[in-house]
């Protein structure tokens, strides 16, 4: 099942550029180099994630699903990126089964992507259509946000060249 993304004019970048990354897990992001917050801002989202050691399981999944180019070529998207700890919550047998099923893996991964740049303010009480076709809901305030009442944003508003990344502590599953 091919995934296509609409191309939108880069209008939200000036607004989102004023938001600094926040959250407790931002401290574990490398301080310098390609995997640092500054380094990630220079690369498209899949490349940026591949340089961040906290997102290695996600990067493996994105590669297995064949979504690297799709994500890197998209414009103005928001990715709710499960950390390695989020994937570690899934029993190994279940995770191995998911990684081996490209169609299901693509469905799960595209459920974590919204085709617009979402600001921190929009997360306070938001509902967003995902590339998978489902809906994600967000709630919270300040630097404390949840997605679908289950996942916490542990490092939010991380800029990449083409996306805003919110690192989450739980893998989301579409309904």
TrEMBL record:
SMART domains: FAS1. Transmembrane segments: none annotated. Residues 8-28 are annotated as: Disordered. Signal peptide: none annotated. Residues 42-172 form the FAS1 domain. InterPro entries: Adhesion/Biosynth-related (IPR050904), FAS1_dom_sf (IPR036378), FAS1_domain (IPR000782). It comes from the Bacteria. This is Fasciclin domain-containing protein. It comes from Streptomyces rubiginosohelvolus.
